[in-house]
């Protein structure tokens, strides 16, 4: 009997213990390697799945009396378990999956995206997990997968709201999910050319051509390559090249325009059906790309609008498939449209932009904000200013298109890249397979012409498409170039290097210079710090990043002018004037002192926010609390109640004995800085001194986190929570905002360097959070920024602002200056959905609000998730979609009016002589505006006024007229 019990434990308990444990990346990689070597790949066995739910052996099909059934493979248990533990689904068989599971709405459509990524990996890695199992007979049946696809789209496209919110993703999925017998030939061409170049390095130049500027002439180029290299090629490589030629030949066949009408019978009598019929009749034999593309682009945009009005799901499917065929026409014919003059080039920019919107790479509302056709029909000239406006808007559309692809797929690519590095190429492949590829090239050509006319040219080494670079912050730097093509979050940066990132890291430490493909937003903490410290900062394209990779590790000079033109050259090519910029200057000339002469450390009672104002900044508390208290007096209905834990309470607690030390916390801190100065006097290198300080401060930080809190402080905190905030501590969630005396100094912003704790509710978490905030100025990042800029970094005192959480619908930043325009009378606003918007580098909805009227959309929001603040504390991640703008026109008007009030009343109320712009954090809840912070907007005046930067900034006559007949 005991033996039987033991067997029972082995059978039931041990397997149960294994399921539920999340696999690490190496374990997943090992699984994938095992599937690659298995003749069945990720599959276990073939079975019949009958209509009544029964499962039968492969040679025992479902009998007629219970329905037809389908035959396909089952998954290995390790594949099934991986889905349960890691939500990773390999080798998905559609006929084996329910529609709801595959759409996977609770996980941001992860399973559908994984299916697309899986198909990509199979094309670039010889079948990937099916390297040996791709011909496992019966694993899936093409006709069953296609029937499932049709059924899936009947279900999916019956929901108008779903289609509106996810138009881009749904339309992209049609390229990968079988439903009409088509293959994604363009992707196969790109992946096959990559495989060949990996096997035959001499093919690399052709691969680059096929990936970046594909056209029908590539067929003969590939044939010529095979003929010229026949002696060097193996039979296997020749066969791969022949297969590529065959695919290309098939792809570049003219699209049967008449077939588009035949394939949309369900809409033949509707307005869009009539438009399709007219298009087919008028353009079936059209060979002139300059005629065909505009008509196709107009129909493509019309179909996108019509799809949303159509109610029949199958009719929608027919229209979307027609849309894909129209996109194919434009993609194939774009290289053949070679405008001869500026007028034709502007037309090409306009219609490729229109087609790009019709294909879903930007939202319809965003397209309406871009005026790419401002030239009048009878205009023979345009001013340089008008042309520059078209260029800027067209550049934005290219950037927005790339960000749409990244927003939809970056999350799943990041997950897969940790165990399958080849997944990283998926997003690039998506962008290269889009109309945005040709739009970007055409915009580059327009940029080159405007650069010639304005003399505002970039001079960035020897890379192509230099008009794709756009300076954000003026400044100059000399240092090693580091090009980071992957995630920046694990990169340990150095203050003397220049970094090129896909996106800026949210917790950037001091660096010499930065350039990013995704700029995040221009008012994030990272961007404000860069602007404040004169760090040159540039936005660039994906291709620019790739072109710069060959200079990775080289020492370069990098400068961005006040008007945004960019210079990058090797150190050996610097002029004498440029070398003189980096002559060693005495340290003290570059740094400032934290004022402490008026600080009051005797105040050891918690303060009501209503009792402090701007005059208390740097005395009782930091500027966040002081300025918010000022705002509370000025706008009582727009500011929450709050508590302020002044500097004195922190200092009082720091006088307690520090565990395992001979003195107090405060004495330990000061002895650290004294010892550092002594080490410098002894000639010890700055690197060693810094390492010593960081080790000491880490010990101090960890000690503060477990510091005992004084009983009288806890008692007052509990009392004031009830009296001021209206509820007992633990019953109301609050923000704990670090507020040091090192922030918002005259020449240093300190934005985002110290800790803010979001929406904490439990009493013990609030107490612990206070200590975490006190400890945060001693983090490596905060210390390094202070060391770079402050003469007395040891005299940093944190206060804490405690305010009730407001679960805003959207939030962001207002700068009372036009950052992009340079006009102090304009406004810049950036908003994201949920709480904490725009400050952490999110891709935010950004506007320039012009003083003379008008609002310009600079960037749409492209964050898939946003924060909400539940009453129980913590944060919840909610999914976002992009079809609607975040801010309404009423919101923008209220912000505009509020900015006017700030400009007039803030200096008067604070009795300040400050004349600069303000940086305001705010949010809306149910359309009610809430204010959370106001501070000076600090720019690096040295960078702005530098004679050198002024010398590389040309004077531009925006009124100069350019004839549209100008040859190109």
List keywords for this structure.
six-stranded antiparallel beta sheet, 26 strands, eight-stranded mixed beta sheet, 5 domains, alpha+beta, disordered N terminus
Summarize the structure in words.
The model is unreliable at about 1-20 and about 585-590 (pLDDT under 50). The longest helix has about 35 residues, at about 385-415. With about 950 residues, the protein is an alpha+beta fold. The strands form 6 sheets. Strands 5-12-11-7-8-9-10-6 form an 8-stranded mixed beta sheet. It has a 6-stranded antiparallel beta sheet with strand order 21-20-19-18-24-25. Helix 9 packs antiparallel against helix 12, helix 28 (about 665-680) runs antiparallel to helix 29 (about 685-705) and helix 29 (about 685-705) packs antiparallel against helix 31. The chain is globular. The chain has 5 domains: about 1-185, no CATH class; about 340-455, no CATH class; about 460-585, Glucose Oxidase, domain 1 (3-Layer(bba) Sandwich), CATH 3.50.30.10; about 605-805, Dna Ligase, domain 1, CATH 3.30.1490.20; about 805-925, D-amino Acid Aminotransferase, Chain A, domain 1 (2-Layer Sandwich).
What is the level-2 CATH architecture name of the largest domain? 2-Layer Sandwich
CATH C-level label of the largest domain: Alpha Beta
Q: Number of DSSP helices? A: 35
- Structural class computed from helices and strand pairing: alpha+beta
Shape: globular
CATH superfamily of the largest domain: ATP-grasp fold, A domain
| E-strand count | 26
CATH fold type of the largest domain: Dna Ligase, domain 1
Q: Indicate the low-confidence ranges by residue numbers.
A: 1-18, 585-589
Reported for the largest beta sheet, the result is: 8 strands, mixed
The total domain count is 5
Mean pLDDT: 88
Helix share bin: 40-55%
Q: Strand arrangement, largest sheet? A: 5-12-11-7-8-9-10-6
Query: Termini distance?
Result: 92 Å
The radius of gyration over CA amounts to 31 Å
Strand content of the residues, in percent? 5-15%
């Amino acid at each position: 009997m005991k033996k039987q019990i033991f067997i029972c434990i082995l059978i039931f308990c041990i397997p149960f213990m294994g399921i539920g444990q999340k696999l690490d990346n190496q374990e997943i990689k090992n699984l994938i390697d095992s599937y690659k070597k298995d003749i069945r790949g990720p599959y276990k066995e073939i079975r019949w799945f009958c209509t009544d739910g029964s499962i039968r052996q492969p040679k025992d099909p479902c009998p007629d009396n219970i329905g037809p059934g389908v035959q396909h493979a089952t998954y290995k248990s390790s594949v099934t378990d991986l889905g349960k533990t890691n939500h990773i689904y390999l080798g998905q068989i559609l006929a084996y999956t329910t529609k709801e599971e595959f759409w996977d709405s609770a996980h941001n459509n992860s399973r559908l995206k994984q299916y697309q990524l899986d198909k990509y990996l199979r094309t670039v890695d010889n079948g990937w997990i099916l390297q040996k199992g791709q011909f496992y007979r019966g694993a899936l049946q093409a006709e069953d997968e296609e029937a499932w696809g049709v059924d899936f789209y009947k279900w999916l496209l019956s929901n108008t709201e779903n289609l509106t919110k996810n138009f881009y993703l749904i339309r992209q999925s049609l390229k990968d999910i079988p439903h009409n017998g088509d293959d994604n030939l363009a992707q196969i061409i790109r992946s096959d050319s990559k495989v060949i170049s990996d096997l035959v390095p001499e093919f690399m130049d052709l691969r680059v051509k096929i990936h970046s500027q594909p056209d029908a002439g590539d067929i003969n180029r590939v044939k010529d390559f095979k003929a010229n290299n026949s002696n060097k090629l193996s039979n296997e490589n020749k066969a791969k090249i022949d297969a590529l030629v065959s695919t290309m030949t098939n792809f570049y066949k003219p699209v049967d325009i008449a077939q588009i009408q035949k394939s949309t019978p369900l809409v033949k009598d509707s307005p869009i059906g009539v438009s399709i019929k007219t298009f087919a009749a008028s353009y079936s034999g059209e060979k002139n790309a300059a005629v065909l593309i505009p008509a196709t682009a107009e129909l493509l945009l019309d179909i996108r609008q019509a799809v949303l009005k159509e109610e029949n799901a199958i009719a929608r499917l027919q229209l979307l498939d027609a849309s894909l065929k129209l996109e194919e026409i434009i993609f194939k014919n774009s290289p053949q449209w070679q405008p001869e003059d500026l007028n034709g080039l502007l037309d090409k920019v306009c219609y490729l932009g229109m087609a790009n919107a019709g294909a879903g790479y930007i939202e319809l509302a965003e397209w309406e904000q871009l005026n790419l056709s401002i030239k009048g029909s009878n205009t023979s000239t345009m001013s340089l200013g008008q042309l520059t406006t078209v260029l800027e808007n067209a550049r934005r559309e290219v950037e927005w298109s790339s960000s749409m692809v990244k927003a939809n797929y970056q999350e799943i690519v990041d997950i897969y890249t940790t165990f399958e590095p080849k997944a990283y190429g998926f997003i690039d492949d998506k962008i290269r397979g889009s109309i945005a590829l040709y739009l970007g090239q055409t915009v580059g050509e327009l940029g080159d012409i405007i650069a010639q006319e304005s003399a505002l040219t970039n001079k960035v080494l020897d890379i192509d498409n230099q008009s794709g670079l756009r300076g954000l912050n003026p400044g100059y730097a000399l240092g090693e170039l580091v090009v980071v093509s992957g995630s920046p979050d694990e990169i340990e940066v150095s203050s003397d290097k220049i970094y090129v990132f896909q996106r800026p890291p949210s917790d950037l430490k001091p660096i010499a210079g930065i350039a990013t493909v995704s700029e995040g937003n221009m008012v994030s903490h990272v961007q404000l710090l860069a602007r404040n410290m004169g760090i040159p900062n540039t936005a660039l394209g994906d291709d620019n990043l790739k072109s710069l990779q060959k200079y990775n590790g080289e020492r370069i000079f990098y400068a961005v002018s006040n008007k945004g033109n960019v210079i990058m050259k090797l150190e050996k090519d610097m002029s004498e004037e440029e070398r003189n910029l980096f002559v060693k200057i005495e340290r003290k000339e570059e740094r400032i002192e934290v004022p402490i002469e008026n600080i009051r450390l005797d105040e050891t009672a918690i303060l009501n926010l209503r009792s402090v104002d701007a005059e208390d900044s740097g005395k009782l508390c930091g500027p966040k609390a002081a300025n918010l208290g000022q705002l509370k007096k000025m706008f009582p209905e727009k500011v929450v109640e709050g508590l302020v834990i002044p500097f004195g309470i922190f200092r009082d607690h720091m006088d307690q004995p520090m565990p395992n030390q001979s003195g107090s916390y405060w004495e330990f801190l000061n002895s650290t800085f004294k010892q550092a100065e002594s080490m410098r006097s002894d000639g010890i290198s700055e690197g060693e001194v810094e390492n010593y300080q960081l080790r000491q401060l880490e010990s101090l930080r960890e000690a503060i986190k477990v510091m005992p809190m004084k009983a009288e402080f806890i008692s007052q905190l509990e009392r004031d929570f009830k009296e001021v905030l209206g509820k007992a501590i633990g019953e109301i969630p609050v923000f704990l905002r670090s507020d040091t005396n090192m922030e918002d100094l005259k020449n240093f912003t300190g934005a985002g360097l110290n800790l803010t704790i979001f929406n904490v509710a439990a009493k013990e978490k609030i107490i612990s959070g206070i200590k975490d905030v006190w400890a945060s100025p001693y983090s490596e990042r905060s210390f390094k920024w202070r060391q770079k800029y402050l003469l007395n970094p040891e005299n940093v005192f944190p206060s804490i602002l405690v305010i009730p959480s407001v679960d805003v619908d959207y939030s962001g930043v207002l700068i009372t200056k036009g950052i992009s325009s340079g006009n102090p009378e304009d406004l810049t606003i950036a908003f994201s959905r949920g709480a904490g918007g725009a400050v952490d580098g999110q891709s935010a909805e950004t506007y320039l609000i012009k003083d003379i009227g008008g609002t310009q959309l600079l960037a749409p929001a492209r964050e898939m998730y946003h924060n909400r603040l539940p009453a129980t504390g913590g944060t919840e991640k909610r999914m976002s979609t992009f079809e609607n703008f975040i801010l309404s026109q009423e919101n923008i008007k209220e912000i505009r009016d509020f900015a006017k009030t700030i400009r007039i009343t803030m200096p008067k109320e604070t009795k300040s002589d400050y004349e600069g712009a303000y940086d305001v954090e705010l949010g809306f809840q149910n359309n009610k505006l809430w204010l959370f912070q106001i501070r000076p907007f600090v720019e690096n005046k040295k960078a702005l006024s530098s004679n050198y930067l002024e010398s590389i900034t040309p004077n531009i006559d925006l009124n100069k007229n350019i004839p549209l007949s100008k040859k190109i």
